[in-house]
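Weekly structure sync, notes
Attendees: PL (lead), two postdocs, one rotation student
Agenda item 3: pending single-chain targets
PL asked that the sequence for the first pending target be pasted directly into the notes so everyone works from the same version. It is reproduced below exactly as submitted, 85 residues in total.
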Amino acid sequence: MTKLEQIRNDLDKYIREELEKSPGDKDFDVCFFEDQLNEIIDSFDEIINYDPTPQYLYDDTGGEPAISAEERGRKAFEQKLIDKG
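Predicted structure, written out during the meeting:
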């Protein structure tokens, strides 16, 4: 487990424990900033589960499409013919 995962888990555990307490015993920060703390946990999750694979490999988001081996070979052959004259 990475240090970031440990921090995320500790924060999540702390928030859950505080919310289970009676209203008089709860930490003011957890009650008042619960939504923001949950957003921080979500941000940690995004960082921990980051996938560096370009999105265009999965859908049509406008990225450069993958080229097939056949197309690459054909273009290389055409370029070779052009270079030789």
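Discussion points:
- The chain has one domain: 3-58+66-84.
- The CA atoms of residues 17 and 57 lie 41 Å apart.
Action: rotation student to compare against the earlier draft before next sync.
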